[in-house]
Structures are given as C-alpha cells and as structure tokens.
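Sat 14:20. Reprocessing the chain from the morning session after the first attempt stalled halfway. Input below, unchanged.
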Amino acid sequence: MPEQLLQLPLWVRFGASQKLAGLNAYSPLYLRNSNHDYGGGDFGDLFVLIEKAKETGFSVIQLLPLYDTGDNTSPYMPVSFFALNPIFLWIDDPIFNNLANKLKENQQHWTSQQTNSQINYQQMYDFKTAFLQEVYLSLKNNSNFVKYKDNITAEIKDYAKFCSLKQNQKTDWQKWETNKVTQNEDFYLFGQWLLTKQLKQVKEYADKHEIYLCLDKPLYLQLQSSDVWANQELFYLKKDGYSEFVSGCNNPSDPFGAQVWGHPVFQFTQKSIAIERYFIKSIAYLSQFCHVIRLDHVLALIWKYYLIDPNTQIGKHIKATGYQILQHIIDSFPNIHFIAEDSGFESEQEIDLPLQNLGLLGVRCLQWASQRNQNSNNYPYTTTIYASTHDTKSLINWYQTLDIDKLNFIALDLKNNKPSNPQQILNQVFSYLYQSSAQLVFVSLPDLLFDTRRINIPGTTNNYNWQKRMIRNIEEIDFSDINKLINKFRRNQLVLSPKLTVSKVVHPQIKNLSSKDKLELIVASNYKIGEFIVNTNLQYENGNSNWQELIFDVNGYWEVRNLDIKLYYLKISLTNCIKGNYELSLCVKFNNGELLNLYEYAKNLKINILQ
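Finished this time. Tokens:
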C-alpha cells in the first residue's frame, strides 16, 4: 500500500460538500505557447496551462480524448484505447537534446507562413511522425525504453503490430495478407513510450499544483483500429470484417437530432463479460494519466444503444445490459472520479435511478433545451455542469441568439437590460452557474478567450471540426474576471472541517454480486481510526449466517501529502456467501474510543448475491 497520495481523491472533497470550478480546455492542439510555434499545441503546453489554472483558481482541467486517431481529425475515432496520439508529442522535451533540430526549424518556418488560427491536422501528424522517426535512431537503445517494452500489455503490442501492418500493406485490415511479416513494430512502441512518459510528467505536474486532470473516454472506436482488428468477436461485423451495424443516435429528446457516427458497435448483450473485461483494461490504461474520467455516451451502457444499417441508414434500439458493466468499472477504480455523460436526458426509471445507484448523476448544459438543464435551482449536488461543450455553440453566440423571455425562463438575473458586452455576458452566466448546488462547473477556454468559433458540429465531417487554435499565447491571457467569480462563490477552497470523516463504498446496493467478490469500504478521516465495527448477516469466514458483530482492526492507510488526513481501507470477503439478500451496518471507532455510525441497515449497503 502506498505511503502517500499526492492529492486528495475528489470523492473526499465532494464528500465534504466542497464545490469546485473546472476548465474545459478541449485539445492540447488548441493551445499556443510563446516559446515556440510548431503549428499546434502539444503535451508540453499543458505545463503552462496547469500553472495558469492554478493561478486562476480552477481545480480541474478537462481534455478531449488523447488517443491516436491516425489521419482522422475526430478525437472520437480512436485507432486504439491503449495508444496516445503522436500529434501531441512534446518535441521540446529535454530528452531530445539537440536531435532533429533542422526538422524543427523547418516546421517553425512552415508554420509562420500559415493561418495562425487553424491547425493543419494531417501536416502536423506527418511532422510528428517524421520527428519520431529521426530521434528513434538515437534513442531506440535507451534503457528506459527497454524497460517499457518488458512491461507493456498485449493491447499495446497489438497496436504496434497493427500500425506496422497498416504501414506496410497500405490498405484496410480486412484486405491484408495474413502472413505478411512486420519489421517496424519497435518504432511504434518507441512513440508510445515517449508519449506515455510525457503525459505522466504532465499528471505529476498537475499533482504538484493541486490540479485534477480529466480525460475523456469515448465509447466506440473506428473500424480501422487495432482494437477492432484484435477483438473482432466483440463487434457486430460481417464475415468480411466490415461493419454489419454502425453507431449513431436517434431520440426525439436529443439536442442534435438523429446522427450517424459510423463506428462499429459492441455486441453488449451477447458478449457482456468479455466487453466488461476489455473496458476495465482500457480504463486502467487511461487512469495512469488522470484523476477524473468522463464516460462519453453512457446512455448506451445504462439505457439503450442504437444499431444502424450502414447501407439503408435505418436503425433500431437495443436495450442496454443495465448497469453491470458500469458498476464494475466504478468498483475497479475507487479513487477515479467518473462523469457520466448522459446528454442531459430525463428518464427517472431508465437513467436517473440507475446512475444514482452507482453514485453518479449525469451532466447538465445550459444550451440543452429542457428546463431540467437550464434551471440551476434543479441541479443536484452531484451534477456536473457545462456552460458549453465541444458540440455546442460558443456561450456568447448562444446567449446572443436568445430573447429576453427565454433568458428569464432560464432564471438568469435580467433586472437590467440584456448585456451585449462579451465579458458581461460571461460574468452573468458564470455567476448563475457558480451559485448553483452542483459540485463541479466547467467553463471552456475558448469562451474565456471570446473565441466564438464552433469546435465541432455534431454529425458532420468537414475541414474545420476539431482544428481550431487559440489566437493569443496562453501566458498573455488575463483571467482576473473569472478568478474573482471563483473566489466570490468559494469554488477553489480546500477547506476541511476540524473533524472530517467521509466514506466511499464499493458495490453499493448491487444486485448481481458474485460470492467471489469483496465488499470494500474506503474511509477518509483527519482523526485516527482504530477499528471498523460491522453488524451483518453476511456469511463471513466463520460461516455464521446469523446476525453477528465483526470487528476489524485498522491495518493500513494512505496518507495525503501536505494534509493531516488518512485513507483507511476495509475489505470483507464474500467467498462463503450463498445466494440470498444481506444487510449490514458499519461504524468506525476512533483511537480516543469515540464511535461514528457511517451506514445503517439497508439504507446504503444492501447486498444481493445471485448465483
């Protein structure tokens, strides 16, 4: 067990009723740094963004998916859930020293001749690949790279082999010569070693500055991906390997209408166990880089998913597997905070209650149409709010198109005339959201820069989606206005009460718990705990099925850096349990003899064993 955590897990802060402010920065490519200009931002620019966020009072920085997407500009079209995009490579990393300097100079010269507000994605991707090829010759025998290769997963090896085969055969994987020998897998592993090293450094820097990183986890991949190629049995594919059905959505309540996205779709119902294992592996990969994970399109896991015939564009809904996959994802990563992107849909029985049972609520966005999303008085504490998203208009453009009646419906304070000044608009809307009960409110970096261009228009493919770049350098931006609002509404303060004890349970109210699973409790306290006291009818190791009191001595904890607080762990084995319903209550006994009841019978920890 580690001796110390660098940051307090977010569930502890939210358990202490704290409210935080988040910065939605979209892509590292959007960033601009005064020290260099290679045509788009990279992982190195995130260090400056972290400093700026800390200075302003933000607690969380959210980024779009960072996976390799090949020549596809959409971050929601990954080539693998186990590989980062080379386009984000920080080429001023000290590890490169003076390598490939001529290539860098040529790129900077090329960039100086281009439009400075738009990214040429393909040119940038090709440049980063060429840079990697040049430095590979000098660094391929690096001892840390050798160690990396000794510890990588099968999925990363699949990615390297896939990329090598694709490069050699230059066609869809469905048409490959199966016995073709690959020669350059090591090069693709080299790129992932560097990218992994750099993004871990970003996370360490964020920890140092007490900033939480939030990364986006798409639900689907593109067909020409290593994950689909290596796991064909998990998807709706025809015998020739091409998609039998593709992804999309079609619901009257969807704010963007019917869409065809085109990914191959998982056979969630038929292959639920194998898909669950695959999803947990992919979350484990992502979790090494971040503290928060946004699960995109969680409706397909919790409610229903949509199958579209790629020839006719006609689709049908398939009922999701319930919350089994999502439950086990959350249980497997107790210190990761998950955001369930549910598009703000309102369905108490089919969406809200299942998410509540998982300790989650969905997201809200002012620009989504229903009063559920637009009236901040209705936002529960566990909600995550977005002023705008990558799929919406800019906040200023949206606001300026609304009439007074609509804004009054949203409940914005319009005692004076509707403001037209961009800063006044932002101040009014951000104040409205920050005063809400929601624990986390995200505002976007483009909105703060008065950048009114759309990042993406959902369901469209063009040369502008996902390729915007900020006009000014990040160091030059004045965030004093948003800083004043964050301070005014107390959304940046780590204030722990003199006596704080909060807890998190793994497997709360679950209905399909295996008798081989464990019930895990995590308790954070700034008072020293000596014992856990459990009253339950669970058949524990002694085989007793009657009500009994179990006492567990505290035998380990994690300390949080710079805070007088510890995280204690309790695991109760269910190995000897048989099918049935079980309940328990739980309290902690502090070293001074004081007792604190955490859970009462049936209210929080009702366990159903199904065998």
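The radius of gyration is 25 Å.
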